[in-house]
Model the fold of this input.
Amino acid sequence: MKRASRRSKAVTIRTVAKHAGVSPMSVSNVLNGRRVMPETQAAVERALAELDYTPNSAARQLASGGVTSVGVLLHPALEQDFLSPMLVGVLNATSKFGVQLIVERASYDDVTEAWAAVRALTRRGAGGVLLPPGICEVMALGAETARTDLALVAFAPGRDLPGMASVRIDDFAAARDMTSMLLDQRHRRIGFITAPRSLGVFESRRGGYLAALHARGMEIDHDLILEGQMDFRSGFAAAAEMLNLANPPTAIFASNDDMAAGALVAARSLGIDVPNALSVAGFDDTPLATKLWPPLTTVRFPVIEMAELAIEMLVEAARSHVPPPPVTRYLSYSIVERASTGTEPKASPPAS
Amino acid sequence: MKRASRRSKAVTIRTVAKHAGVSPMSVSNVLNGRRVMPETQAAVERALAELDYTPNSAARQLASGGVTSVGVLLHPALEQDFLSPMLVGVLNATSKFGVQLIVERASYDDVTEAWAAVRALTRRGAGGVLLPPGICEVMALGAETARTDLALVAFAPGRDLPGMASVRIDDFAAARDMTSMLLDQRHRRIGFITAPRSLGVFESRRGGYLAALHARGMEIDHDLILEGQMDFRSGFAAAAEMLNLANPPTAIFASNDDMAAGALVAARSLGIDVPNALSVAGFDDTPLATKLWPPLTTVRFPVIEMAELAIEMLVEAARSHVPPPPVTRYLSYSIVERASTGTEPKASPPAS
DNA sequence: CTGAAAGCGCTTACAG
DNA sequence: CTGAAAGCGCTTACAG
Done:
């Protein structure tokens, strides 16, 4: 009974074939984009549409022996702002390729744990694994990476990862462009809050800031470069320190949005109006950027597209049984101008 | 060659059966938890472990004719804070049940578009669809809901949805408990920032606040109840208005974290110290709550567990071909106390 | 270019 | 409780 009912509603490749007056093979050929005669093509396509046929992906995978799943490593704390768009991109791609997504949690500090999670993923059938930022940088260092014949792709590492396929933006160029934009707005004293030295983005983002200043022949004032911890609090502290300088900055560019938000609130606490007396810019375009007032000028990653590309690389590698070539694929970032930045104030800031 | 290599590494149910000296059927029975003789069980389990066998889920699904996918509707703007943990919970469950997750984007305002997305999902093979907050409330109103025999589960609607299966927390009780906690901390003037009237949570959260005050026989001061728009800005504005009152509140409870964050910053702008001169509490435990300083006391949803449960309901309904019973499953919330709240200030606030 | 055959790895009835 | 048989819906070689 149950079986009968199930069967009654199944539109299979066979149903379509009969409807179109061809063999199931021809339907399969059309479905998979192989060359068929025009009239066959037309008949099949009509039947497909009329019957509202959907291929059974389970059958497809079983028959083709193809990759059935890819894995993603997740941080247990789930703190990362880009996680939702990353997962959305991942799901877009897994939906598209008809592969199952399996997830495993692993702490980012513990490489051993991360490798155990990767192995668990492969044991569960993952043909490849996506490595989020943080963990990918640590894992790229390990000797195991070279040995493995597993398909691994690093997502948004903070720097180039020799020997590992990765998808990222050019952090250096983005930071350089943001700094140039502030210079174009006539700011001449631009504070910079770096990432902690341990992160891959420390060097690339700070380097971009320095490069923009160098390009204009400007001197570096080391009082205007402070190290942050990527959180609101350290951004607040660094900004407060800079703003209390005898010769304070008219703009502050932070290595991420959380620190920029801290700078914004620090300015407000000191009675400094943003953007009229101080411009503030961040990096990452996290949800926080538009939650504050004024909303933050920041650097946007094409997170969804990056994740889609990464999964595509993974699926392709897994299907061909050859690990992805260890190259970095750069996707383009954009500078998002919002109300937190503007022309350098006419009235010079207090003090000095 | 390729085929051979693929085959060489496949550990199938047949391999296991030979290794254990039983038939494939017995292996299948053990795998599916059916009764077998103890010695058969033991032999199979040993073989399973020694061979590190993983079932091929594609084959499994094909053979059992089971549900192969469930769908999730996503808002194109992806703004929602709970999206990552929701997706993580969804993925935990889909991984566990071996079903494919497919996603479709649909605007939350447009019911027609939402229904089209649901149909697209089912056409692509989804046996059921998870409806996120916002859209589920709107869709529950439509006549189509009653007509459909599709498995639908509402995730975290702001209020009870008659006729639709849903998973949520008791917003009313949570708001009541938070308010009671503030009362226990000796606050006697507690401001409340509501959600906009159009949202399901407007009534439930405000109701909880009022109930807590009533329970202590306290009078309601309508100057302390202001409507917000769920964003930072409206929280800022509402808090600023209350704090400029002749008799300002010593605590402000906002219907979500974004508005609580706005209240926090408003207080700081006015030179009011949090928590020493003002306590601030939010709702939702979004990432923002711990990014600010002081971090926000708030109400936490078990988002991951809720999503897992919702997918479980969906899979079960789809597999049994009977829509999920239209009941609300409540999961327990918790009040997370952080540094933004504390005992009522000894020194009375300024003014009055 | 097309189709009949075999098989992907598992499960569902059905005999024993 | 156990196993031989058939089949899930598709694709891969292989003849025509």
